[in-house]
Amino acid sequence: MRQSVRDVTQRQLNAQRSFAMSRRRFLKGVGVCVAVPAFESLLPGSSAASVVGPSTTASGAPIRMAFLAIPNGVQQQSWFPSGEGKSFTLNRTMQPLEPLREHLQVISGLKHVNATAGGDGAGDHARASATFLTGARARKTAGKNIHLGISVDQVAAQRLGHLTRLPSLELTCDAVRKTGKCDSGYACAYLSNISWTSPTSPATPDPNPRSVFERLFGAGKPDDQQSNRNLRSQTDRSVLDFVLEDAGDLQRQLSGCDRRKLDEYLSGVRSVEKRLDAAASFGDVSQPQMDPPEGVPDNLNQYLQTMFDLLVLAFQTDSTRIATLLLAIDGSNRSFPDLGISDGHHELSHNQQKPGVAEKIANIDRYYMQHFGDFLAKLAAIEEGDGRSLLDNSMIVYGGAIGDGNRHNHDNLPVILAGSAGGAFETGRYLQPDDTPMSNLFVSMLNHFGVAIDHFGDSTGRLDAI
Questions:
Q1: Which residues contact 82 (CB under 8 A, 6 or more apart)?
Q2: Cβ neighbours, 10 Å, residue 180
Q3: What integer pLDDT is reported at residue 29 of this predicted model?
Q4: Cα angle value 274/279/282 (rounded, 5°)
Q5: How many other CB atoms are found less than 10 A from the CB of residue 337?
Q6: Residue 464 and residue 21: Cα distance in Å, rounded?
Q7: On the chain, which terminus has fewer CB atoms closer than 10 Å, C or N?
Q8: pTM above threshold 0.70
Q9: Angle at 105 between CA 454 and CA 101, to 5 degrees
Q10: Residues 372, 380: contact at Cβ < 8 Å?
Q11: Rg (CA), the chain
């Protein structure tokens, strides 16, 4: 009897999921389920490493995909490198990335036409945020009839998210507003969300590091998770204290190299947990028109570092392979007292012609870049076998859909692509394609991730140059 294409496809998907789960280990204790990295010494000879499936490299290591959004455009004179191709010099804003330049592709010349006004008038920040990962035009409305398009991360999640415990992870370092009008007649949903599961359904990001940590390391139903959190709080114990017995059993099965990898990973988990505990000890932080969620640091440095570290842990444990992180909503008027900048970011971005203001914008751009560089360095330090690091096995987009915040242009966008997707990309370059839809980049990324797709958003083809 002839088998249907659906039956064959389902068996293939089941086999892929079985292989993915076979590479994953969990440490379990009271109310805790801690995923750990894949260890070479636990693989059955070389056979597991030779299996290649969607979202994996030739060695069997998973490929990760992340999109990091910055607000308000950039100070372009300080952003783009000089030179071209392999012969380029990083400008002032990107200097923190100098030790990682061989892992990067800086890209200019990309555009998002659907973020331009068209016939919709003002609202560039809302359109930029909405269009960044969708390539689609947002319907101008402040009501419930929002309409946009599916985002690139969710295309990947809907095709291959079944391979991991969390199909995707959506994070933000800003407040989330689900209702109301935020930008010249556009719904707040367009600004607060860069990830969309359908044209009418945003994937709401989590702003609370504590709840993200519990999603990664909690176990049981929500009520059970809360009682387990209370137990750990009352006994002043780490989540790791509850899995020590299981961890000891696992260590006895590992090689010396893998034992060091496990120790480094568990130390990283504990480091994040300590920062969350410290943040919670200060109590709630007063913010206008909202009660801040427990565990949100009042210090921006700590907030950004914690969110980036959680993303590292999520990728390191293969809890998910797809993530988005909104560093601040487009139009953010956040100040930066650590930089001696009391003015709001958005206000400054519209006054760059005034003496000293462009300098402040460049300093803010570099501030975000420093955190991005620290994140990449941590990925690069995690070995995954076959001579590659977690960063090598990733493709990470950093940028936004506004070029110059003063002009609100949506061409020549600030974009960095980090990682080589397991060796598929040629890194260490400054690429300068001419007037190219950013959606072309997304088509190429999806294809390298294992998603067979010819068109996305307003794409006109692939960006094969990467």
A1: 88, 89, 91
A2: 10
A3: 61
A4: 130
A5: 9
A6: 32
A7: N
A8: yes
A9: 155
A10: no
A11: 22
Size (the chain), residues: 466
Instruction: Report pLDDT digits (tens) over 444-454.
Output: 999 999 999 99
CA distances from residue 36 to 172, 250, 261, 326 in whole angstroms, order as listed = 24, 10, 10, 26
**With contact defined as beta carbons under 8 Å apart, do 65 and 156 qualify?**
yes
- Cβ atoms of 299 and 145 closer than 8 Å: no
Residue 257: how many other CB atoms lie within 10 Å: 12
Q: Is 85 left (phi over 0), alpha (psi -120 to 50) or beta?
A: left
Judge contact between 64 and 313, C-beta under 8 A.
no
- Burial letters for 25-38: b for 16+ Cβ neighbours within 10 Å, e otherwise? bbbebebbbbbbbb
> What is 5-449's CATH number?
3.40.720
What residues pair up with 64 in beta bridges, in sequence order? 394
pLDDT at position 32, please? 57
**Which of 115, 108, 184, 106 shows the shortest CA–CA distance to 410?**
115
The residue assigned the tokens 């560089």 is 373
**Helix (H), strand (E), coil (C) string for the chain:** CCCCHHHHHHHHHHHHHHHHHHCCEEEEECCEEEEECCCHHHCCCCCHHHCCCCCECCCCCECEEEEEECCCCECHHHHCCEEEECEEECCCCCHHHHHHHHHEEEECCEECHHHCCCCCCCCHHHHHHHHCCCCCCCCCCCCCCCCCCCCHHHHHHHHHHHHCCCCCEEEECCCCCCCCEEECCEEHHHHHCCCEEECCEECCCECCHHHHHHHHHECCCHHHHHHHHHHHHHCCCCHHHHHHHHHHHHHCCCCHHHHHHHHHHHHHHHHHHHHHHHHHHCCCCCECCECCCCCCCCCHHHHHHHHHHHHHHHHHCCCCCEEEEECCCCCCCCCEHHHCECCCHHHHHCCCCCCCHHHHHHHHHHHHHHHHHHHHHHHHCCECCCCCECCCCEEEEEECCCCECCCCCCCCCCEEEECCCCCCCCCCEEECCCCEEHHHHHHHHHHHHCCCCCCCCCCCCCCCCC
Token couple for 414? 């600030």
pLDDT of residue 26: 62
User: Quick one: tokens of 55?
Assistant: 């979202």
Per-residue pLDDT tens digits for 189-206:
999 999 999 999 999 999
Distance CA 167, CA 323 (A): 9
Could you tell me how far CA 18 lies from the centroid of its own chain? 26
Cα–Cα distance, 359 to 352 (Å, whole number): 8
Residue bearing the bigger pLDDT, 274 or 223? 274
Residue 359 in tokens:
């300098």
